[in-house]
Amino acid sequence: MATKPRVLYEFGPFRVDPDKQVLLRESQPVPITPKAFETLLILVQHSREVVTKDELMKAVWPDAFVEEANLSQNIFRLRKALGDSPEDRQYIVTLPGRGYRFAAEVRTVTQDGEDVVMESRSSAQVIVDQPDAALAETLTRSLPAVAIGWKREPSRKHLSITGALLALAAVAVAFYLHSQRQIAFRETDTVLIADFANNTGDAVFDGTLRQGLAVQLEQSPFLSLVSEDRIQQTLRMMGQVPDARLTPQVAREVCERTASAAVLEGSIASLGSQYVLGLRAKNCVTGEVLDEEQVQAAKKEDVLDALSKIAGKFRSRVGESLAAVAKHDTPLAEATTPSLEALKVYSAALKLHASNGDAAALPLFKRATEIDPQFAIAYAFMGFGYESIGESALTMESISKAYELRDRASDGEKFFITAAYDLQVTGNLEKAEKTCELWAETYPRELTPHGFLSGIIYPILGKYEPAMENARKTVEIDPDFGIGYNNLAIAYEALDRLGEAADTLRQASERKLELPDFLVDQYQIAFLKGDHADMERVVAAGKGTSGEEALASEVDSFGVAYYGHLQEARKKSRRAVELAQQSSQRGKAALYEAGAAVREAVFGNAPAARRSAAAVLELSNGRDGEYGAALAWAVSGDSAEAQKLADDLEKRFPESTALRFGYLPTLRAQVALNHGETTKAIETLQTAVPYELGQPPCSFFGFFGPLYPVYVRGEAYLAAHQGAEAVAEFQKILDHRGVVVTDPIGALIHLQLGRAFALSGERSKAKAAYSDFFTLWEDADPDIPVLRQAKAEYAKLH
Fold it and tell me: Which of 746, 795, 793, 751 is nearest to 769 (CA)?
């Protein structure tokens, strides 16, 4: 019996001998430990493939529990032995969160040095019907050179048979080698999906398959797709319309401009009653074909399943481990919808969403759910559409439906739906925070969890440093993600880093990014700098579109009221409410009215405050607007109405973090103050301490509410004649101007400090604080009750 050839592995100047368990460099032994050798052998046997840490540890230490540090030590020793440096990983590459990959080309040789095919791979079989001549020639050229020796001259018949066998072998081996190729992607690489070439004549596939492929590939924690926002922004820079078709030529240019690693070109063709789907990955700079996949679907209903399979093949080819593919591979029909028609509408909705926002895409998301009432992710987006126009009841209804159907979604979409449910329905930010942190850990290249954390969760919790870091992460992942710049600018404002906030907005402008929120950011930065001319410029820039003008008018109403121009503020608030109603945004109109109600209340205009509070509830019973109305009633002395609304809010939103730790303590403390119960008010506000420096949801578009628990606590200490304690509370507000911004308490804090200092017997400090208030309100409307009261108090100090 012939002796089975001994298999060795070679790469660079190294040779690995499994039988002798030795590593040679140019025939000289390289000293490494036995466990390090076992680790190396596994890596070279799976060269160009991802081997997870768990797989390595189970293989090297099959019968023992060891710490991961043991594996790390082995990798360190191997790199040292191979000459790998931190700057140049030629051989062993770490894939954070995934494992390791042996990057160098490995040759398998026999003991005498002749190239052989590994035994475990020698059974590859390919059946080829009528192979194309050009294809056969290409495949044959792709084979490595092999030396063939003959003992005698073969006959023409033998040559013919041998040639046919060699041709078949060439095709078989070439297909096998092609199936084993790995595409090397870096962690920062992105992939662009072009529109599918639809050769079936059936319009239902237009746009649908591209979106379906995106859904499947987005399930990968490893891959990062170029976002629709970034695609549309790039198309604009190219002089194309935002919804231009991504033909191969257009897609390749977008791919180059976004510095992506590859462009994926898909196709579908009919073959009788069957369908053939193809996918080709190209280097968008060189045009080199990196990978080609093809699958067949027996009938139209099987196309989505075939698309899932082709996506899974591509994910494996780019280096994603089989375990990861299996873990995050919900079939497309389950991850979205089994309906091609619903998926087509959903695809169109996402494009419109990227170019025109939540409200514009709302009808299409709604239509998708009408076609398929089980379409979970479409309900979630529909909920955000309703949120954008202030329809809180419909928001909660839609997102609750998505949450109910969340098992019909991919893993990434489940994270999105769960986070949305806690953000928009329960309001439980502690749960949402945990969901988003796990989401970001599972999908490190997904920007949405960082967006939720930086734009909603952390600001409300008062965690401005983490908010800044996560906002930076969103911009790093997608430099054309406008909301990321907005969140980053707001975080910088809260941290009183106004120069960096302004720089952030300039960067967004340089990238031609436009958001109505940028006007608010620019206004607030100008306000904090005391630049009145720039404030007026921003307001003027907002005129033209109802959404931008409403926002600009509302934020300016607070800006002018801050200086005591209450009559002008009322006009601007009325304008904002009218514009919101004209745009059918009743929820936003209610929030704007609530801000006006609170402002009137703290300035001492009780009748006006009550009228505005009543108007709020005629427009909407949304959580944040209703809180504003309740607070206006409480500050105006109508404790019964305030308590009734507080009870209603608690009943409807029992889990809401903003409610439990901000709204309810503030309302109940104010009611206690109305009844002369100062101790109860102070004790009630203890609940608010963990998040009292945060920006509550009502401040996002209503521009009122930050640090109100602190303000009311200060008033409680004043009522209890504890001047020093009141000073400490009011000073917190003065120290957080970037959080309070234009809120009326920012102006009144000078008056409150004057009162607190006077109570403490510090007359000079009290006079200085009163003077600061009068300077701020030097040309204020003279009939504002709080101003008249302040002048009377100041006169007594003299």
Answer: 751
Could you tell me the residue range of the domain that residue 250 belongs to?
A: 191-335
Helices (H), 267-337: 303-317, 322-327, 332-335
Q: Facing residues of 289 across strands?
A: 282
* 424-483 pLDDT, tens digit each: 999 999 999 999 999 999 988 899 999 999 999 999 999 999 999 999 999 999 998 999
Domain identity same for 144 and 211 = no
**Burial category of 261 from C-beta neighbours within 10 Å (exposed 0-12, middle 13-18, buried 19 and up):** buried
Q: What is the pLDDT of residue 151?
A: 31
661-706: pLDDT as tens digits: 999 999 999 999 999 999 999 999 999 999 999 999 999 989 999 9
CA atoms lying within 13 Å on the CB side of residue 344: 10
State whether 366 and 397 are in the same domain. yes
Which helix (H) or strand (E) segment holds residue 53: the answer is helix 53-60
Residue 250: CATH number of its domain: 3.40.50.10610
Confidence bin at 335 (pLDDT 50/70/90): confident
Q: State the DSSP code for 457.
A: I
In a domain, 118, yes or no: no
Query: Who contacts 56 (Cβ-Cβ below 8 Å, separation ≥6)?
Result: 39, 42, 43, 71, 99, 100
Taking a C-beta distance cutoff of 8 angstroms, is the pair 425, 432 a contact?
Answer: no
The CATH number covering residue 43 comes to: 1.10.10.10
Task: State how far Cα 301 lies from the chain centre.
Answer: 33
pLDDT, residue 357, reads 82
Give tens-digit pLDDT for 92-137. 988 777 788 888 888 888 665 444 333 332 222 222 233 333 333 3
Q: Do both 79 and 139 map to the same domain? A: no
**Where among 513, 535, 564 does a domain terminate?**
513
Residue with the two structure tokens 């529909």: 382
Q: Kindly state whether residue 528 falls inside one of the protein's structural domains.
A: yes
CA nearest to 702, candidates 583, 571, 590: 590
Q: What is the pTM of this model?
A: 0.72
**C-alpha to C-alpha distances, 519 to 540, 657, 795, nearest whole angstrom:** 10, 29, 41
Beta bridge partners of 17: 22
Between residues 742 and 585, the one the model is more confident about:
742
> Do the Cβ atoms of 281 and 183 come closer than 8 Å?
yes
| Range with the largest mean pLDDT of 28-37, 215-224, 258-267, 731-740 | 731-740
How many Cα neighbours within 13 Å face the side chain of 771? 8
Q: Could you tell me the pLDDT band of residue 65, with boundaries at 50, 70 and 90?
A: low
- Residues near 346 by beta carbon (within 8 Å), at least 6 away in sequence: 211, 336, 337, 364, 365, 368, 375, 377, 378
CATH code at 700? Answer: 1.25.40.10
DSSP-derived letter for residue 225 is B
**Cβ contacts of 268 within 8 Å, gap of 6 or more:** 196, 197, 198, 199, 200, 205, 209, 275, 276, 277, 278, 303
Are residues 668 and 589 located together in one domain of the fold? yes
Q: Are residues 432 and 539 in the same domain?
A: no
Please tell me whether residues 221 and 318 are part of one structural domain. yes
Work out the angle between the directed axes of helices 546-561 and 532-541 (0-180°, nearest 10). Answer: 160
Output the CA torsion 628→619→613→574 (10° steps).
Answer: 100
Do residue 634 and residue 754 come from a single domain?
yes
Q: Give the single-character DSSP code of 88.
A: B
Question: What is the pLDDT of the chain when averaged over all its residues?
Answer: 86
Q: What is the amino acid identity at position 720?
A: A
Give Cα 752 to chain centroid, integer Å. 41
**Residue 102, phi then psi, degrees to nearest 5:** -85, 115
Cα 618 from Cα 612, distance rounded (Å): 10
Question: Is the domain of 560 the same as that of 683?
Answer: yes
Domain-located, residue 119: no
Domains of the chain: total: 5
